[in-house]
Amino acid sequence: MFEDITNYLIVGGLLAGVIYGLVARHFDLDMMQAVRKAFRETDHRQLLAVAVAMLVAIVGTYWLETTGTVDVASAGYRNAQFDWLGVLLGGLLFGIGASLGGQDAARVFVNAAGGDLRALLVLAVFIIFATITQFGLLESVRLWLTGLTAIDLASGDAGIASVLGLPGWLVLLVIGGALAAYIALRWKRGGQVSLLIAGAIIGLITVASWYVTGVLAFDDFNPRAPSGITASGPMSRIGMLVIAGDTPRLSYAVSFVIGLAAIGFVYSIIRGQFRFAPVPGGKLGSSILGAALMGIGATVAYGCNVGQGLTGFSTLSLESLLAVVGMFLGVMIASKKGWD
Asked: Where would you find this protein in the cell (predicted)?
């Protein structure tokens, strides 16, 4: 029984990472760069794909929860402690960092495995700062910040519906409607069908991850909360492996990032694109600073653009919504200042 459950987690995570990485690499899809292109270049094609991914994710996850298929509310994204400042500030730092570093938390694995030395540098620094923020020198600062402003919710649920006292279907209708309206309006001004399909696939990966971890890998004798795709969490675990020799358990999330790296390498080899591309001139310092901000920000915000931006957001968590707002604002500020 245990071996079957473990296989579901490992194989499921690997497949999710491979498919996500393949879609992101083939269609050059990067969530944070999509925001930059829409804000700075008025090119909304990639952001339309992100909106489709979010829409598919929230609708599918809502269905899994309301039908009782997966206990989504038990996931960490909707716990009893509402850390509003942490997720907003962390998201802001992550967004600025992703702009400086030139890639989001998923693409950095894919790009690094394809020989991009800038991505490899960003990945290494990201891992270091995620680790020291979660477990090391900056842990006390992070915990102090959480204790300073976090609110304990009487309802025990940081979902938007629970916090605002609204029915879940209404929250889904408002947020889903806003995403659908954006997609429809921007599509009229120029959209790309292939990118919308790519976004839908990523949204389906988010939903499928809940099903794998919450149904296929659920153990009645040792129940665990369901989880989903994320990239920043495994980074701190990888950091502990390097620093302290603590081997991370092959969870769904760890398998996911392994899948991202694997497809990044295989894709670049098959397409004849593998090469050690140097860090562009003048980008060394900004890449290091950006990666550090990404590592700190993702840890303080309890997730990156994948963990909070897709998995957390799909639960209609208020924390995840604030994290996404912070990330988008961070990218826009960096673009406005020309830091990207």
From this structure: Cell inner membrane
